[in-house]
Amino acid sequence: MWFNSPTEQLSIQVLSQVTTSDDNPFNYLLEPWATTVPFDYPSSLLRQLQPYLQPYSFIPDSKALELAQEILSATQGNTVDYIFALNQLIYQDCEYITRETGKPYPAGITWERKQGSCRDFTVLFMEVCRAVGIAARFVSGYQEGDRNQQSRDLHAWVEIYLPGAGWRGYDPTLGLVVSDRHIPLAASAIPSYTAPIEGLVTPVKSGEIVTSNMNSHISIN
C-alpha cells in the first residue's frame, strides 16, 4: 500500500470465517524409513525440504545440538518419542513470558534462561528438530484458549515434516499437539516472514514517535 501524501493513521481490518475439522492429530502412518531419526531422505524430497533444515541463525547452535543429543539418547532415536519428549520438555521446564516486540531469541539463549515467549519456544523447538534432520517451520496464528476470554494475541508454534504424515503441528508453549484448536495464518522456514502485516513507516512530523497496535477478537461456535 502506497500513499501520495502523509497520513497520520492507518487502520487495517480483516474479517474471516474459518471452519476447522482436523480433530485427530495422530491419524497418520510414518514411512518405514522415518520411524527413527535422523532420516535418510530420498534426494528429491531432501531438495524440497532444504530451507526447513537450515539452522535459524545459519550457524548450528551448540546448546540446541546438545539438547538434541540428550533427547536422542533418551528416546533411542524413536521419531514420535523424540518429538513428544521435546515438546513436553520445553513446556514443563521453561517459563512463559510476554514479549510483544522483537525477534525470537536464539535457541541457546532461550534454553539457557529457561524462559521466553511463544516465538522463542518455537525457534528452540525448530532448532532441536533441525539438529537431527527433521524439517521444521515457524507458524503464526491463533489458538482457542479460554472460550470466554475477550481478546487473543497472535500465537506461534512449529510444524515439522514427518514423511508419510506431511506437516504436523506442535505447540511447546502449551505442550499440545496441534489439531483443530489452532488457526494458522502463515508458515515459513524464516520466522520474520510470518508477520501478518509488514512494512516501513516514517513519522509525519520530525521527532514524532510512531506507535502501532493490534487487536484481535475471535468468536468460537
UniProtKB/TrEMBL annotation:
InterPro entries linked: Papain-like_cys_pep_sf, Transglutaminase-like
Pfam families, sorted: Transglut_core (PF01841)
Transglutaminase-like domain residues: 110-174
Protein name: Transglutaminase-like domain-containing protein
Species in which this protein is naturally found: Hyella patelloides LEGE 07179
